Amino acid sequence: MLFTTSVYVKLALLVSASIASALPSPPHRPAAASNVRKRDDASAPVAASWYANWHATDVPLANLSWSKYTHMIYSFGTTSATEYVSLTDQDQTLLPDFVKNAHANNVKALLSIGGWGGGTNYSTIVGDATHRSGFVKTIADLVKQYSLDGIDFDWEFPNGEGIGCNAHSADDTANFLSFLQELRADPTGSNLFLTAAAGIRPWNDAKGDPSKNVTGFSTVLDYVAIMNYDIYGSFSSTAGPNAPLNDSCVADKSQAAGSAVSAVNAWHTAGIPLNQLVLGVPAYGHSYSVKPAAALPKGSSGELVAFPAFDNKSQPMGDSWDSAAPFTDVCGNTQGASGVFDYWGLVKGGWLSENGTAAEGISHLFDECSQTPFVYNSSSGVFVSYDDAQSLAAKGSFIKTMGLRGFSMWETGGDYKDTLLDSVRSAVGFSDSNKTTTSSGDARLTTAAAHSSTMKTGKSATATATIPATY
Description:
The strands form three sheets. This protein has an eight-stranded parallel β-barrel with strand order 1-2-4-5-6-7-8-16, surrounded by four helices. It has a single domain (5-283, 388-457), classed as Alpha-Beta Barrel (TIM Barrel). The radius of gyration is 22 Å and the shape is globular. It has eleven helices and 16 strands. The chain starts with a helix and ends in a 14-residue tail after the last helix. The chain has helices at residues 5-22, 89-104, 122-126, 129-146, 172-185, 260-269, 292-295, 343-348, 389-402, 419-428, 443-457; strands at 46-52, 71-80, 84-86, 108-114, 150-154, 193-198, 223-227, 277-282, 284-289, 327-328, 334-335, 340-342, 363-367, 372-377, 382-385, 406-410. By secondary structure, the chain is α/β, with parallel strands linked by helices. Helix 1 crosses helix 11 (443-457) and helix 9 runs parallel beside helix 10.
């Protein structure tokens, strides 16, 4: 049964309240340095998306629903040890058209640098003073050449190997901050809209653990986009939700691999204000080879399970954007099918009807803890964890209740007839005029705690009410 809007709101309130009861005060934030610009648009809500340049033929710029976005992020320029930022011949033709379309629709145009395979040289560049200065100059030149409004830094991940061959150093996070401070000191950089795409935990410190204090980044970045997806995948011990809203309610705590709830908690505790956090949301899911006995332990008429065992040596093909043809990644390793199904791929592939319900012969589960859906084809043995309108509405209500800055979707072309985009926009509070009713700041936490306790007990609650971290 589909949840009503009121249930989404209650869910978000409960989740928000669970964070409120657990969050310590963030680290002391020093006054911003004099070279840091004052962000006059700091409270403007964000409806963003990453536009994948390699899908430009299938997703023409002219066909995008530009009026539904506030920011669009061209992906990707890659890091280069010599040129600092590398753009392909296609980029040099496509990027100007991207910016022209964005500006014609009053949308900020950003260039994302890095990505899963494009950030191998970040550590080398920001780890040397000369290279940092060269990086700043290169960005300033690119901004002027292409009339960009900002830059998105997608480093996956500081002090980590990422794809497997990233240069990395114990000083990566500190050096990243030094670079951003230098960029903000530049006349061009001082006026840019600067963002960073990050994982569900703060960037690693010198010991390789999530940093406990990243407050300095709040003075140089407009927002941090938490990429709350790929939480489960072919690398996991079992199948599971791609983008869980919550994981504190799982029956088996070993399955609590991360979620929007824990990620917001971690980043805010480490010093990033709630209104400088954007929740990354996916328009795709992951597939697994799962035997019927594992997916439907009570038989074909029983309930689908959310964490079944799978065969990690047999990766199913995803949608038509996937390919089984072997290719060599930037690290020199041979890769095959990703198993990724974009939302449109689930509709076009016969998994879902156009209204998002499971097609005939497809088993379906909407998991109340993670607030994400799963589908399974017992004939092919393929199990898919993904996001739909219902899960995006739950995430949007969470964003609104928590007072986060907004959302950013990976990727623009993954949706089907704006099903996911419309759902999350509506839940966040965007109207056709791109205005929202989203509140900002930590005060939302107190309000959520009080409302949540009232719903549970029927009595008023104080700001110090303890709310269980479950639904």
